[in-house]
Amino acid sequence: MASPAVVWDSALLGYDLGGEHPFNPVRLELTVRLATELGVLDGVELLVPSAAGDEELLRIHAPEYLAAVREAPLVGWDVGHGLGTTDNPVFSGMHEASALVVGSTLLAARKIADGEVKRAVNIAGGLHHAMRDHASGFCVYNDCSVAISWLLDHGFDRIAYVDTDVHHGDGVQAAFYDDPRVLTVSLHQHPFTLWPGTGYSAETGKDKGAGTAVNVPLPPHTRDPGWLRAFNAVVPSLLAEFEPQILVTQCGVDSHEEDPLADLSLSVDGHRTIYATLRDLAETYAGGRWLAVGGGGYQLIRVVPRSWTHLIATVLDRDVAPETLLPPGWVDAVTRAAPAAEIPRAMTDDRDTTFKPWGDDADEPVDIAIRDTRRAVFPLHGLDPDDPRD
Ligand SMILES: [Zn+2]
């Protein structure tokens, strides 16, 4: 078995929403540079993706939407389908750049399905808000959904998708809401307080897919211990019951305390712990198969590069110690490009991520979410929502 696959090509920087848009591709560039300078990518062959074809995009998206995306840069305004808005501005080469993002996650999925690797990571992926016929939340095509759909046709019939972005993974949930073969789990800031306003505990799937959508809406300002308490109270039990053949994870890092778009209060240390936990869960419940993609994350210099370097390192089993100093080459390059930026010293925010497991006598703010989510879905999986052993 080859070492895990890392998908990357600088052409992925072409997914650029332009101007002052928060979804700035520099976050990917700084991540790859940091991972490289820390030696995380030493000897790793980066897999170069090609754009997904229409036959793959049409798994999830409507033909008229593909046509609109292609034509949008020529038409420029009033194209509909969520395009040409502040969130989803039209840009030159939009179809091509968006199809390349899908192709990059598909390549990662293919490597795992072919048995060449057990794990793959693609930080350029994770566009989880894109819907069948419209762009949404900076996302044009939904690479997560296309890859899951492709996997369903290539030997997989039990796929678990876990979304740790601060926003609800609404596009992926919608694509598989009635499909019992795909378990979608999203932990996010409560929909009362954050776009897109969905992701309530009561959203649990429909028809044959009843129980296969799981949502954990967390109160604003939840910190690492609370987040991890909620995750561990919900996700491992469901994976044990669902018995996935692969774990697909969207690893958005906009849950960080310094993220400008949202209000959870996680740290880089919390993110590092999440990735190690996801790796353990893939090993324990999914035959070791783990496909990790990126997602949101808008603190471009201080957060995204460090957190996703930890993600890549975790996938590669090359874990980076939190106290590791940022390499001078990276610091110099960032200082030249952004002289005003306050650059962190090390790969840590000096946070303790120790958490108390749910079921103790403590009464934590996240326990409402834990209780509601467990009561909404655990009985549908034969689990007792009120028994901490389940
Ligand atoms: Zn997000």
From TrEMBL:
Residues 21-314 form the Histone deacetylase domain. This is Acetoin utilization protein AcuC. Belongs to the histone deacetylase family. SUPFAM superfamilies: Arginase/deacetylase. Gene3D superfamilies: Histone deacetylase domain (3.40.800.20). Keywords: Acetoin catabolism. GO terms for molecular function: histone deacetylase activity. CDD domains: HDAC_AcuC_like (cd09994). Pathway: Ketone degradation; acetoin degradation. One of its GO terms (biological process) is epigenetic regulation of gene expression. It comes from Amycolatopsis saalfeldensis. It holds the Pfam family Hist_deacetyl. It comes from the Bacteria.
